[in-house]
């Protein structure tokens, strides 16, 4: 199996987040920053999971704007120094998901925040669970993260709904490319 973002996100959603979250959305920027998997917990808090399939990708994450803030807009425009953040905006818990064979504890120093957790994924061939997820480091919760309002949850649910229909359309296009074209007789029979 070659690791990809979708396989990792699927394993995490089914093994880690399924019982804790009422809503999961892939590739979502609702928080103001991109999340590979955004989960909304049963108590209406946000979990952000970043999927990394290479060490370079993991190391590069610390440079993203979601981990930095400036005291003011003018300080940012003037090139003033940013301050690091422990959590991205609106996020209660943050995790990195990484294939276990890529991980070593020396990578901890490259994580943008000491509050981020680490989920490791291992292939499990010949099993009904093809990918196993293990929590190597728990995320530290952001106690000041606000719970979402019902309106905010509905906004995220709308995104999840649209993503589902987009996924169906993608699947249908892929199936249409694989199917042979109907013969003229088959078309006439319709």
TrEMBL record:
This is MmcB family DNA repair protein. It comes from Piscinibacter sakaiensis (Ideonella sakaiensis).
């Amino acid at each position: 199996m070659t690791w990809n973002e979708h396989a990792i996100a699927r394993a995490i959603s089914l093994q880690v987040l399924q019982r804790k979250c009422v809503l999961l959305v892939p590739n979502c920027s609702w928080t103001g920053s991109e999340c590979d998997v955004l989960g909304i917990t049963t108590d209406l808090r946000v979990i952000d999971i970043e999927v990394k399939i290479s060490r370079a990708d993991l190391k590069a994450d610390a440079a993203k704007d979601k981990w930095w803030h400036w005291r003011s807009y003018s300080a940012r425009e003037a090139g003033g120094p940013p301050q690091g953040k422990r959590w991205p905006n609106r996020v209660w818990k943050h995790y990195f998901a990484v294939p276990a064979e890529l991980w070593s504890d020396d990578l901890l120093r490259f994580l943008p925040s000491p509050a981020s957790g680490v989920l490791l994924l291992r292939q499990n061939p010949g099993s009904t669970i093809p990918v196993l997820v293990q929590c190597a480091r728990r995320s530290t919760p952001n106690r000041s993260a606000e719970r979402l309002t019902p309106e905010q949850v509905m906004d995220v649910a709308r995104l999840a709904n649209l993503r589902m229909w987009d996924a169906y359309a993608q699947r249908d296009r892929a199936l249409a490319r694989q199917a042979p074209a109907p013969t003229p007789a088959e078309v006439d029979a319709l």
